[in-house]
Amino acid sequence: MAYYITYGEIQRHLKEHYQRTGSGMQFPEMAAYLYRKGLLFETRPESIPNHKMFGQMPDEEFEKIIDDMVLTLTEDLKLSPHIRESSIIPTERDTYIIRHPRYTRPFLHTHNYFEIDFVASGSCTFFFEKETRTIREGELCILAPDSMHDLFIGDDSTVFCIMLRKSTFNTSFFSILSRQDLLSLFFRTILQGDSHPNYLLFFVQNTTWIKTIIHNAMGECYKDDSYSNFSCISWMNLLFSTLLRNYSETLQFYNYQMGSDFSLVLQYIQHNYQTLSLSSLAEFFHYSEPHLCTLIKQNTGYNFTELIKQLRMADAISYLTNTNLKIGEIAERVGYNSADHFSRVFRSSYQMSPQEYRKKHAPAEEVFIPFS
Questions:
Q1: Would the pTM count as exceeding 0.90?
Q2: Domains along the chain?
Q3: What is the radius of gyration, based on Cα positions, of the chain?
Q4: Between β-strands 95-99 and 158-164, what pairing exists: parallel, antiparallel or unpaired?
Q5: Are 105 and 96 in contact (CB under 8 A)?
Q6: DSSP state of 365
Q7: What is the pLDDT of residues 171-206, one digit of tens each?
Q8: Which of 111, 138, 144, 178 sits a CA distance of 20 to 30 A from 341?
Q9: Distances (CA, A) of 75 to 28, 72, 81, 217, 265
Q10: How far apart are CA 95 and CA 88, in angstroms?
């Protein structure tokens, strides 16, 4: 049987318990406590009107909206160190967004879905494997599945928690991350790897647009019409696009097994691939060449030579389809010493010459027929 309570009510009980005892309760523990006390509703209160949008609503006003949002609870909600998406993401939804409860008891756990945590105001304590760090306003963390973690949020800080089914990430968002730039490749390789826990951290300088996206996406999660799930996915596409377009240079990556941040190496390759050699890259970052080769292969799926070729070909395709540059000029821009060498490599990759590729992918000329 389902029971209901608003965000505002359950948060009030969590805060009162923390202030009274000096320790927090996990969300399922508080839900069970309220059930035993008979403080949950058996009838679902009215949901958000389907036409309601939140735009650039001030934080204080949106906080009041959240407090009136309704959470659905069940008697079998249990505290577990291993959470399955079926127990927390509603069946009809691909993504689900909550305001992370404040004053909860830290409890390290894993889950088999992606989690995105965005600190909209204040700060929180982030527990990850054996690491503890503070995440502050404007920071956005993307956790890969099966990473041991938790958050503690006190005071009046606001952290939004976005949960994405793994299958949804692979289908609905993969197209955004299928670009041939290095960060998109990095995103795919790291977040889809199941072998070890890891996370990505972005630093968002201007939070207004990110808040707008999350506010509207969260609102869709609590509407009950047939368009809300699709609309929520669309807002998530905007979120990923915004992160990659505007904040990719702020990216930090933590690979727990590796014990280091490798994103700076990848960004350096992205910006210098035209003239970069393995020896110069190893010298710049103080790695041995064999160790650097291993790291590149682990984090991109390519060896160094293949990776440089992929980056050169991706930019060459862009120049061929979007500019009128001569083949020799394109060759020089992507790092080849001669047009002949560039053409040979291009043909081996695409089974046609650069000129043939440009002709084949040229936009069709439109014929204007007035009053047609």
A1: no
A2: 2-255 (2.60.120.10), 270-360 (1.10.10.60)
A3: 24
A4: antiparallel
A5: no
A6: P
A7: 777 667 666 566 666 666 666 655 567 788 899 988
A8: 178
A9: 10, 10, 18, 27, 49
A10: 10
